C-alpha cells in the first residue's frame, strides 16, 4: 500500500492583540527550524502570521510594542478621520515599508504557501487568497482579513468588498484540509473549553450594519459557528489528526491592547507554550 504523503500545515486563529500569543509560539517554531508546507491565517493570524513566510523572528512583538501607542497606528482620531481604527497608511505602508521593513524578497522566495481569509460583504461568506509575493494585493487581502466590523471600512479588492475573516471562518482548518493539508498544527488564542456567548443585541447589529445585511447575519451566527469549530477541532485533536496549541488560561487583554508590558506578557506566554510543546510538534510533523 502506498504511504500517504504528508502535507504540513500551520493554522492561526485571529483575536486582535491576543495574536501576540501566536507570535510567541511561531517565533519559537522559527528559532527551532520548524517548517510547514503551507499556512493559513485569519485576521491577526493573517497580518502577524505572514512574518512566518518572511522568516522575521520577533518582528510582530517588536513593532507592536514600539508603535502600538502611536495615534497613527490605532486611535479614535483615526477612526473619526478615516473610518478605520487602525490607520491604513501607517500600519500597512509606513511601518512595513519604512520603519520595520517587511522582507518581501524572503517572503516571495519561501516555498511555503500563505492563505488568508476575508468575509465577502455581498455574500456573507468566506473567501480565500493565496498570498504569493507579499506585495500590494496580498497586503490588501491581509488588511481585509483583519478589518473588524464597526471600526473598519470594507476593503475593495477586484471590485468586491471584504471585511474580517473571523466573522465567517474563525479558524480555517477546513480550508487547509480541502487543499490536502493532513498534518496540521492549529494555534488558538482562547483557552480550552472557551465558548462564545450568543448575541443579545441582534437588532443593533442589523442597524449598524444595515448597508451590509449579509455581514450582519454572519455576525449574529458567529458564536454558533465558532463554538461548532471548537468542537470539530477538539475531535480532530483527540483523534490525533491535528495538534492544537492554546493559552493555558484566558489572556485577559483587550482586542486593542497597546500597553507594551501587557503585549510582552502575552507574547511570553506564547513562547512558554511553544517551548513546552516543541518536541511534540517536531514528532507530530514527522508523522
Walk me through the structure.
- It contains twelve helices and eight strands.
- It is 46% helix and 14% strand.
- Strands 1, 2, 3, 4, 5, 6, 7 and 8 form an eight-stranded mixed sheet that branches.
- It is globular.
- It is of the alpha/beta class.
- The model has no long low-confidence stretch (mean pLDDT 96).
- It has helices at 19-31, 44-47, 50-53, 59-67, 76-82, 88-99, 104-109, 136-145, 173-178, 202-208, 213-239, 260-286, and strands spanning 8-12, 38-42, 113-120, 125-130, 155-157, 160-164, 183-187, 242-245.
Outline of this structure?
It is built from twelve helices and eight strands.
How many beta-strand segments?
8
Helicity level:
40-55%
C-alpha Rg, in Å?
18 Å
Low-confidence stretches: none
Secondary-structure content class? alpha/beta
Q: What is the strand content?
A: 5-15%
In round numbers, the mean pLDDT is 96
Largest sheet: number of strands, sense, barrel closure: 8 strands, mixed
The ordered string of helix (H) and strand (E) elements is EHEHHHHHHEEHEEHEHHEH
First CA to last CA: what distance?
17 Å
Number of helical regions? 12
What overall geometry do the principal axes of the alpha carbons give? Answer: globular
Amino acid at each position: 500500500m502506498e504511504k500517504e504523503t504528508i502535507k504540513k500545515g500551520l493554522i492561526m486563529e485571529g483575536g486582535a492583540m491576543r495574536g501576540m500569543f501566536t507570535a510567541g509560539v511561531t517565533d519559537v517554531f522559527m528559532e527551532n527550524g520548524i517548517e510547514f508546507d503551507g499556512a493559513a491565517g485569519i485576521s491577526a493570524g493573517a497580518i502577524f502570521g505572514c512574518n512566518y513566510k518572511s522568516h522575521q523572528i520577533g518582528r510582530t512583538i517588536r513593532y507592536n510594542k514600539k508603535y502600538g501607542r502611536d495615534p497613527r497606528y490605532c486611535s479614535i482620531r483615526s477612526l473619526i478621520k478615516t473610518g478605520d481604527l487602525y490607520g491604513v497608511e501607517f500600519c500597512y505602508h509606513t511601518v512595513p515599508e519604512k520603519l520595520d521593513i517587511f522582507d518581501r524578497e524572503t517572503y516571495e522566495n519561501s516555498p511555503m504557501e500563505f492563505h488568508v481569509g476575508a468575509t465577502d460583504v455581498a455574500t456573507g461568506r468566506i473567501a480565500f487568497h493565496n498570498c504569493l509575493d507579499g506585495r500590494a494585493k496580498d497586503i490588501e487581502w491581509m488588511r481585509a482579513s483583519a478589518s473588524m466590523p464597526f471600526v473598519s471600512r470594507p476593503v475593495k479588492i477586484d471590485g468586491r468588498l471584504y471585511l474580517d475573516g473571523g466573522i465567517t471562518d474563525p479558524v480555517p482548518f477546513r480550508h487547509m484540509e480541502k487543499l490536502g493539508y493532513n498534518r496540521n498544527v492549529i494555534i488558538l488564542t482562547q483557552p480550552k473549553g472557551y465558548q462564545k456567548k450568543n448575541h443579545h443585541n441582534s437588532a443593533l447589529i442589523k442597524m449598524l450594519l444595515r448597508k451590509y445585511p449579509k455581514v450582519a447575519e454572519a455576525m449574529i451566527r458567529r458564536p454558533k459557528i465558532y463554538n461548532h469549530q471548537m468542537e470539530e477541532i477538539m475531535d480532530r485533536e483527540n483523534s490525533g489528526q491535528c495538534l492544537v496549541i492554546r493559552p493555558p488560561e484566558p489572556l485577559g487583554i483587550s482586542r486593542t491592547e497597546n500597553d507594551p508590558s501587557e503585549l510582552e506578557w502575552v507574547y511570553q506566554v506564547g513562547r512558554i507554550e511553544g517551548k513546552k510543546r516543541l518536541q511534540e510538534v517536531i514528532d507530530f510533523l514527522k508523522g
